[in-house]
Amino acid sequence: MIAAPELQTDFHYPQDTDTRFSSDTDFDDPDGRSAVQGKGKVKKGKKAPGEKGKGAGKGAGRLNGHHQENGMENVMLFEVVKLGKSAMQSVVDDWIESYKHDRDTALLDLINFFIQCSGCKGVVSGEMFRHMQNSEIIRKMTEEFDEDSGDYPLTMAGPQWKKFKSSFCEFIGVLVRQCQYSIIYDEYMMDTVISLLTGLSDSQVRAFRHTSTLAAMKLMTALVNVALNLSINMDNTQRQYEAERNKMIGKRANDRLELLLQKRKELQENQDEIENMMNAIFKGVFVHRYRDAIAEIRAICIEEIGVWMKMYSDAFLNDSYLKYVGWTLHDKQGEVRLKCLTALQGLYYNRELNAKLELFTSRFKDRIVSMTLDKEYDVAVQAIKLLTLVLHSSDEVLTAEDCESVYHLVYSAHRPVAVAAGEFLFKKLFSHRDIEDDSMPKRRGRQSLNANLIKTTVFFFLESELHEHAAYLVDSMWDCASELLKDWECMISLLLDEPLPGEEALTDRQETALIEIMLCTIRQAAECHPPVGRGTGKRVLTAKEKKTQLDDRTRMTELFAVALPPLLAKYSVDAEKVTNLLQLPQFFDLEIYTTGRLEKHLESLLRQIREIVEKHTDTDVLEACSKTYHALCSEEFTIFNRVDIARSQLLDELVDKFNRLLEDFLQEVKPMQYLLYSVMVPLKTAHDLSKWDLFTSNYKLLNTGIENGDMPEQIVIHALQCTHYVILWHLAKVSEGSCKKEDMVTLRKQMRAFCLMCQRYLASVNTAVKEQAFTILCDLLMIFSHQIISGGREILEPLVYTPEASLQSELLSFILDHVFIDQDEDNNSTGLDDEAGKIEALHKRRNLLAAYCKLIIYNVVEMNTGADIFKQYMRYYNDYGDIIKETMSKTRQIDKIQCAKTLILSLQQLFNEMLSDLGPGFDRSSSAFCGIKELARRFSLTFGLDQLKTREAIAMLHKDGIEFAFKEPNPQGEGYPPLNLAFLDILSEFSSKLMRQDKRTVHMYLERFMTFQMALQREDCWLPLISYRNSLQAGGDDDTMSVVSGISSRGSTIRNKKPKPVTGKRKLSEEESSSSSEVWLNRDQSMQTPVMMPSPHLTSTVMRDTKRLRPEDSYMGVYTMPPEQQQPQPPPQHHAPPQTPQPHHHQTPLDYNRRGSGLMEDDEEPIVEDVMMSSEGRIEDLNEGMDFDTMDIDLPASKNRRERSELKPDFFDPASIMDESVRTTHFLGYDAFQR
């Protein structure tokens, strides 16, 4: 029991072996302060000198003589475990043989194995092993790490490395299992391994800490298994000893008693040693690492302690160890919280352990209940499952409030959460169901055992007050209670049969809920997929699921084919019940009507539907009848003829009645209300009504409504819808290709006449009528646009309809008047019901806007009409931002240049509106002007980072902007700035999107509009021109120039230190593009605008690139303060130093946050910038959305930080500006670190 003195270690086992495990016994020490914090020396004895010399000498000779061979052996052990092709037991057996032969060499191989598994390239030599302490070895190995890569085997991607982790853990478990009878007690191998792993687990290198913690925890698990076996053997030995001692003296075997005593003593000694090892690992590794900064390490610790408590509950399942799991339930990483819950599930699953969990349950039950609402869905699912196990173990633990907090989760949109909550609900409400006696005949209908359970389900559904979510409730309980939910015979009996004596009948509200639940169960059984909003889509059914689906459809059809007519007859006057019942035939197997000889029940069903159509005027009921006819009129079934005849007869009667009443109405024989109820059915149906020629009748009705102006809105709306359907059915027949030329001409005339009619109704005083006319017009314009001839349908070319300018104008006016309005204008009421109404109204307005935007995207209306839409982007961002942004994206894909012209037109419109409101002398710090600048910044971000793709569009945008800025001369004379000159301040937001050579071209184009006197002006009113010129003259230095504040953006951008080599292709493209960029410059040679005269220091930006801007020419020197904030002092154009600009109190925050937004742009569309609602306080809003208080802070060293410190000074080097081959790169991360 002696260890070699040459092995210097930093760790020793605790000497106290009187207690099983030295640990705390309460829940009030979350930091583990009472645990042993330091690492001492391993308890070791001394070997005999001869033994020491023999072992050490042999090992040293081999190591010194075959160092490379030893290294290869180590690599081989690591490679064998990594490949995982060899049986792990044979690998361990080979190592044990080498250990018995030369334990120092074998142990050195094992040490290097752990080092290699951490991803370290270093190798521990025999000299280091004998003469260096663990801390020195670890420090030496740390120097061998590859700093360029943060990956190591446990974190590497790929199937090989995923398998490595399991092989690594298996190796440790097999090693302990194979050594459990002798080697682990030699106080050499385990002492060395535990000491090494403890030291590595305390390293600041993540790879060492992670790998050693996993190894130590798996080693502990293996030792717990050994301790458990020792405990079982001790108990068996003790029983054998007691049995032998209780024998009569004559039959007692004293030799056996001595052997049993000796065996028990040996087992006790072994168990004490194992306990010392486990205490060393627990206090040296677990107590520190369960609070590690890395979530993966914390998760490993919690996962393994759960294994220990489950495997050896007598020793570990107590409050001293449970407290660590309880504390970690509050971990900020979902991965760790998940491990806590799965560990506890293994404990609560065993009812025999419930007594030991009582204190823990009472202490941490509230936390577990709150975790059902965890932001991580996986954690919430496991929390609900854990509560289900707690409920299964005892009904008294969870209060009614605890259960109710889980009940409502059955309506969750996340299906795993809902299913787990459904299982909890089923266990709680239906766990006390009676067991049916097999000897008694099986009861059916409302006398069955499921009757009360179905009633309970109905009661729960009504009490939850989420009536529209019955499908979610059914789906949540489908996996655990499908047998109950598919007891349709019992449901039918509860609805049709009279209640039993003493039984309380269902109320009307309960019957409505039961019918809704019954419909949802039938839909779930027939479609076999979750309801809309829950699940990613339809999945492929297995053969067993398909068979179950067919069986369920057959059974439901047989039951409801007979029961549906009586149900419709009983509830024929109740619109809500009838609407749900009429949906049932959509899920039938209609062939059973024929094979099952159920034709008489079909006739009964058709009679009931006809009566319902005659009785009801409710839209939902009539639509349900229409869908039922559509479902039954399937030509593939033999019942088609019978149903089609019934449907045609019904339509004949309704159309005849409609025509008669229409004639009476036109002759003013009958009041309008009689026509209203009779006309709704034929107008709402979506069946083919072309053979009844309803277009003429409806057109007369609509024309009369225009002339008289007093027709009820419901009649007009349904007449518009019916006419729309008639035209679409006519188009469907024409598209088949078998129509006559006369049919094509008739359709063309009807379509154009109807479009004119809808256009006339856009001027109606009734909002609902105008909205219906607008929607139909947008649909017709889309359908009959140039897209109609695509796909080889050139025959339909005569039907193409292009809207006239007047119609386009009216459509746009409708959008501006009815969509871009405030909520208060649309609905001034408040309250819960009114809030729902506001949401519905907003949804309707969004649909209207989307319908018009589709016309823009598909080039049905002129793209420039989108300017009136785009300019609302900022003001109505919350309501329509996503629609407008998508429209901009699609239009850019169609025509980049026209899209850019539309964007600049929208800014010009806003600028003109501002001028009309504020006058020419407006303050550029006003909210209106800042809002236009912010909108321009948003537009600029949508162009992305690829300047080549948007080059021509950006150039055209600047051209239009410059022309607009100089369009209106100042009536006071040429010495005063043009009226629109401030627009250049807005236009400068797009300067960063120009390529370097394009900036020169735009600057030359700008000079054509300038006079010599303009270039010399430095007054405040000329600041927009000066700042815009500066943004163009910045060349490649600063592509993110902004003139919102008086602070130059040079300090917040960075230049790449390493210039990229410019290929010949790039040079060629730049030369070509530079020459081509002159094209639009020379388009307007005849413009009557003053041309900039040559100036030695302003004619060329190339000359200015070779030196630093002078203070009097710099941006900061000329844009310091607004006039109202300046102190009485000389004009600042030549005296204000660029180093100390006066802050602009209104605009500086805007510029500060603007850059924070610009950091997040991507190649095509901005991401984060659309999240920000205003220009003020965006940084604070972003910070509020981020959780900086996290334990996972151990980030790998970043080279970027070093690069930043190196690159920053070079940006101000004028020599770097002269290099034309260097393409400026905007380092996106720099601004964030500067702030």
TrEMBL record:
Where are the compositionally biased (Pro residues) regions? 1128-1141
Write out the biased-composition intervals (Polar residues): 1045-1054
Keyword Cell division recorded: yes
The record ties this protein, via Pfam families, to: HEAT_SCC3-SA, SCD, STAG
- Can you quote a single GO CC term? chromosome, centromeric region
Q: List residues of the SCD domain.
A: 286-371
Q: Residues annotated as region Disordered?
A: 1-67, 1045-1170
Instruction: Please give the superkingdom of this protein's source.
Output: Eukaryota
Q: Where in the sequence does UniProt note compositional bias of the Basic residues kind?
A: 1055-1066
Family, similarity comment: Belongs to the SCC3 family.
Protein's name in the database: Cohesin subunit SA
Give the species. Answer: Pygocentrus nattereri (Red-bellied piranha)
